[in-house]
Amino acid sequence: MHHKIAKVLKRIAGGNLIRLSIWKRANIVLQAIAGVIDEEIAFLYDVSRSVVARWRRRFLDALPGLNHIAQKKPELLSVKVHAVLSDNLRTGRPPVFDAVSRTFIIGIACNNPNDYGFVRSHWSLPILRKAIIEKKVVSSISCATINRILSEAELKPHKNRYWLHSTLIFALFLLII
Questions:
Q1: How far apart are the C-alpha atoms of 66 and 76, rounded to whole Å?
Q2: I need a labelling partner for 78 at 20 to 30 A (CA). Which of 40, 104, 108, 138 fits?
């Protein structure tokens, strides 16, 4: 292993402004390089032996490429070591509702329920769900999904007054023009 790789690993392992998972993995790799057995490393960093084996193997698999980078493009070495110690991308389940549907859902939530025929002062998730389905934004959706969409947009229509119809916003608008 190239000495520059060990230097980058030691910098990561000694850092205090680094994600814990990256810090642990750098330390696991350094301990493995030092010849410490997997069971002892697992105990030291409170992980399973299989986690230690995975990161040892992953780093060993990446080592030829890292050695090449250390010799040819050392300015990229730190980024590449971080990449090796990072989680692999996970595809996950594709989103069921596209950006357009989400925008319509948020748009309905930002309006008054009275505008959709519901005599209420605030939205509830079941009533909002009913309005979304009646407007044919989507054919079906759960209240939990609506809640997640609104939370991601940092909206809580069941707790807030409608900012679009706020007299404070209107007054600020008049001050601006």
A1: 10
A2: 40
Distance CA 143, CA 141 (A): 7
Contacts of 87 (CB under 8 A, 6+ apart): 21
Computed over every residue of the chain, the mean pLDDT equals 86
Q: Is 61 helix (H, G, I), strand (E, B) or coil?
A: helix
CA angle at residue 71 from 4 to 36, to 5 degrees? 40
What does the alpha-carbon distance between residue 109 and residue 146 come to, in Å, rounded to a whole number?
10
Write out pLDDT tens, residues 50-88: 999 999 999 999 999 999 999 999 899 999 999 999 988
Weakly modelled stretches of the chain, pLDDT under 70: 156-177
Q: Where are the alpha helices (DSSP H) in the chain?
A: 3-14, 20-33, 38-45, 49-72, 77-85, 99-109, 125-134, 143-152, 167-176
* pLDDT value for 175: 61
Domain residue limits, the chain = 3-85, 99-176
Contact 80, 64 (CB under 8 A): no
Residue 60 and residue 85: Cα distance in Å, rounded?
Answer: 12
How many Cα neighbours within 13 Å face the side chain of 154?
Answer: 0
Tokens of 15: 């850092």
